[in-house]
Amino acid sequence: MLSLQQYNDPNDSSDSDHETGDYTTHLKPVTDKNEYGSTKSLRCVNLAPVVATKDDVDTIQHIDPATKEVKYNPKFEQLFAPEIGPSNPYKTEQQKAHKNMATGFAEPAHVNNFQFELQRRTFTSYGYAIDPTAGETSLEGEKYVGDVTAAVESKGLSVFEASKARPGDKRKKVKNTDPSDIDGYLGPWGKYADEKTTLKPSEEEQEKLDEIIAKRSKKGKQVEEKPVDEKTTLHIKDPYDYQGRSFLHIPQDVGVNLKSDEPPEKCYIPKKNIHTWSGHTKGVSAIRWFPKSAHLIMSCSMDCKIKIWEVYNDRRCIRTYAGHKQAVRDICFGNDGTQFLSCGYDRYCKLWDTETGECISRFTSKKVPYCIKFHPEEDKQHLFVAGTSDKKIVCWDIRSGEIIQEYDRHLGAVNSITFVDQNRRFVSTSDDKSLRVWEWDIPVDFKYIADPTMHSMPSVTLSHNGKWLACQSMDNRVVIFNVLSRFKFMRKKIFKGHMVAGYACSVDFSPDMSYLISGDADGKLFVWDWKTTKLYSKFKAHDDVCIGCLWHPHETSKVATCGWDGLIKYWD
Asked: How far apart are CA 30 and CA 22, in angstroms?
């Protein structure tokens, strides 16, 4: 600082010195008197004065109003401090107002739940309610919201007060509360004064009641329906040939060995109709080959009759069996073909002699049998099973005429019964969309196959080699189950293309296992390749539903079909 004071420019004059001295006054040390003798008090300027900071004045750490979560323990002053910062100039007074809900600030009010509900219902019913504004204490000063004129007219009655008293609302009771009166003490069990304990209907009411009771008694009475007298008609001149053999004898002059156990080596697709058997007046419901030889075919129909026809030579109708009151549903031959079973909608199962046409015995469980099967074993030919409409499979003994076993696990009417696994087990299908497998004579199913994607399967056929079950599914598919590998569903073996929904069209295999055939609802016959599941052929077989089809077990390409047009057709 002293060197700056002593610094002088040589060019400067004395005048300039004087002026310079004036300018550098602030650089000189401060004394009470300067060189001019005047007393001047110079103030020192503090460049960094002590200032009270914001933290010294306002010790509260403010919390942003938008904060949802505080991660420390704030004090009361912090939580309830006023908001700081500039106010939004664009907000209206209404927007600036403090809110605790979307429409404004709702003050907590303590209202009795009953009172609130009373006013709400009154407002809903009559259009007015007491004004809930706080501060209205006197009853005279009560105000109404809503329809005030209606409130004044009805004197502000609520829904509970507005209803008029009805007779019987407040009934008088006979009272005797004196416990010392042992016989007459009533306590809380006293009757009403006007109570009538025995009421008799008036004459008009009695007449109506009598009518209703008469109708019910008529409905309830199940008159024991007597079975129809069985009749049979032979349509050929002589039941025996010149050697005394009946029509059950297997012919040997037809060019095919009908006694062989071997199936034909190669089968072919049938193409043309070679014969039509007509004789039924209504739709045919099922056809069955004569066991082993298939030289005869039996049909049952909705005209309540069963007929047996020749397959070879003249192809005549041999015999008609009439013994059912209503449509015949199913038929089944015994192992040797000398007897057969039939079941119909008249709730009867009947055992017939094939040759003479005599009805040997009748069985009924008072329920409609939908399917019927003899036990295939030779030593159990006296037993047969029938699937009924009351969800049961019933086993009858022909000798005693009694039910010896009931398989009662299905949840719907039983549609089909098929013996598998060397006749030790049988498979049943039902309207409950399931397939159950049973051990013979054990009334608990050991396998239950059901799936949400499965449909009802009213017709089931076992393949000739006993390996496969073909089931006609109600979603217009034929599905296959493998009998030998625990009834595995074969996902890749599905046969489609036909339309059978709602009809129990039967399925059959060709004897050499190369084709699968099925009828359909339009009267067509479908032929698929067994290995590839391709549709090989389809042709119109009947004018109505083609309900049954059977491939001849000894012929290469002969198929019998039956339909609801009352015809049985033979194709080659």
From this structure: 14
Residues 526, 531, 533, 536, CA torsion sign: negative
Best CA proximity match to 518, nearest among 561, 457, 480: 561
C-beta separation of 428 from 414 below 8 A: yes
Q: What does the pLDDT read at residue 3?
A: 58
- Other C-beta atoms closer than 10 Å to the C-beta of 521 total 18
pTM, to two decimals: 0.64
pLDDT of residue 140: 44
Q: Alpha-carbon dihedral of residues 571, 512, 524, 272, nearest 10 degrees?
A: -20
What CA–CA distance (Å, rounded) separates 438 from 428?
Answer: 8
Spatial CA neighbour of 293 closest among 323, 338, 356, 328: 338
Measured CA to CA, the distance from residue 476 to residue 462 in angstroms comes to 19
Given this model, what pLDDT does residue 158 score? 86
Residue 433: how many CA atoms within 13 Å on its side-chain side? 8
Report angle CA 478, 480, 482 to the nearest 5 degrees: 170
How high is the mean pLDDT in each 10-residue block of the chain (572 residues)? 55 48 63 51 75 74 85 88 81 84 81 89 90 58 79 85 72 88 88 82 90 84 71 92 92 91 92 95 96 95 95 94 95 95 95 95 94 95 96 95 94 96 95 95 94 95 95 96 94 95 95 96 96 95 96 95 96 95
Locus of tokens 């009748």: 362
3-state secondary structure 224-271: CCCCCCCEEEECCCCCECCCCCECCCCCCCCCCCCCCCCCCCCCCCCC
Give Cβ neighbours of residue 475 (< 8 Å, ≥ 6 apart): 455, 501
Please say whether the dihedral angle defined by the alpha carbons of residues 427, 428, 429 and 433, taken in this order, is positive or negative. Answer: negative
Q: What share of the chain is helix, strand, coil (3-state, %, to 5)?
A: 15, 30, 55
Separation of alpha carbons 312 and 511, rounded Å: 19
Q: Among 286, 320, 284, which residue's Cα sits nearest to residue 303?
A: 284
Residues 6+ apart with CB under 8 A from 246: 239, 240, 355
- Amino acid making up residue 178: D
Residues constituting the chain: 572
Q: In whole angstroms, what is the distance from residue 61 CA to residue 58 CA?
A: 8
d(CA 211, CA 326): 32
The phi, psi pair for 564, rounded to 5°, reads: -80, 5
Q: Taking a C-beta distance cutoff of 8 angstroms, is the pair 274, 390 a contact?
A: no
